[in-house]
Amino acid sequence: MRDFSSKAAVITGGASGIGLAFAERFGRAGCRILIADIEGQAIESAVSHLTGQGIEAHGHQVDVADFSAVEGLAAAAADKLGNVHLLFNNAGVSITGPTWLMAEDDWRWVWDVNVWGVVNGIRAFLPAMLAHGEGGHVINTGSLASFNGNGDHAPYCSSKAAVLGLSQSLYSEMKAMITGIGVSIVCPGMVATRIHQSWRNRPDDDRPWSDREFANKAFLAGSEEFQGRGMAPEQIAQSTFEAVQEDRFYVFSGANWRAFMEGTVARAVRGENPFVLTWGEDRRPESERGRRPWASANDLV
Ligand SMILES: NC(=O)c1ccc[n+]([C@@H]2O[C@H](COP(=O)([O-])OP(=O)(O)OC[C@H]3O[C@@H](n4cnc5c(N)ncnc54)[C@H](O)[C@@H]3O)[C@@H](O)[C@H]2O)c1
């Protein structure tokens, strides 16, 4: 897609972080934006922030895990923007903890938002995008974690692997049918956003495995500091903008993603075991931890 002027873009999880950076970047190129998010207050701030930059912006509160609510979003988008050209299935949440201790609600919450949120967006929007015939692009937010399951991150990494698979399927369908609809998957490493505070949007009646994510002050301070070392959201938004312009499927950004892929995908091709990367307990000697192609997880920016 080369001409963004007056194109309509719906961005889930658009009220903060990477989604808000998408809104700014594509809005600056001339897109009209609908911010779709679960956080009402954050939607209002995002819309006034964008409007203040001269970008046409609207807001709609939605839980992407709820298909009927996403159908409501599609109706609101048609009402506010007319035909939709760019669909960003970006809303996502994360939780950390040992795979065998995670509660069923942990798994369901992360998969409901990260996987079903994407499926719901595609089912609610794509029929109309295909029908209007003006072309467009679907941008799903994956992660470097789409390519490798990290310790202490099983619900998240497995959900992002699912996003990779479904995005590749959709890409093949859109190309084979000559639809004029492009598909991209955005695969950032660490980005300085509020993803480490995903617990702020958990369903009230959830029963999580531990309260450390939202009540343990030492853990919270550590994750705040860690996440803050990530790349600026604007950087991945710019890479995404260029990829959509050039109709590229994979969107990577930052200095170390090649080394990461070399350490994951290329190892599998060579028949080697996965490297060990965990946010949890690691009793291995320092010498073994240093064998990764990059220095530490913090370098994935
Ligand atoms: N930050 C990173 O390091 C990183 C790395 C790779 C991929 N990602 C992915 O980027 C995407 C955006 O995350 P971010 O880092 O900007 O975090 P963020 O927490 O700043 O933004 C996520 C947004 O999604 C919204 N959201 C959460 N649950 C929702 C729901 N059920 N329905 C609708 N909206 C909901 C939040 O309110 C928030 O505005 C996610 O898919 C995330 O997995 C982030």
Give an overview of the whole structure.
- The protein has about 300 residues and is α/β, with parallel strands linked by helices.
- The protein has a single domain (about 10-300), classed as Rossmann fold, CATH 3.40.50.720.
- About 45% of the residues lie in helices and about 10% in strands.
- The protein has helices at about 15-30, 40-50, 65-80, 105-130, 155-175, 210-215, 215-225, 235-245, 255-270, 285-290, and strands spanning about 10, 30-35, 55-60, 85-90, 135-140, 180-185, 250.
- A seven-stranded parallel β-sheet has the order 3-2-1-4-5-6-7, sandwiched between helices.
- The longest helix is centred in the middle third of the chain and has 29 residues, at about 105-130.
- It binds nicotinamide-adenine-dinucleotide.
- Nicotinamide-adenine-dinucleotide (NAD) binds near residues 19 and 38.
Layout: helices, strands, pairs:
Layout: E1 8-12, H1 17-28, E2 32-37, H2 40-52, E3 57-61, H3 67-81, E4 86-89, H4 104-132, E5 136-141, H5 154-176, E6 181-186, H6 212-215, H7 217-227, H8 233-246, E7 250-251, H9 257-269, H10 286-289
Parallel strand pairs: 1-2, 1-4, 2-3, 4-5, 5-6, 6-7
Helix pairs in contact: 1-8, 3-4, 4-5
The structure holds nicotinamide-adenine-dinucleotide.
Residues 12-13, 15-19, 37-39, 42, 62-65, 90-93, 113, 141, 143, 188, 190-191, 193-195, 198, 201, 230 line the site of nicotinamide-adenine-dinucleotide.
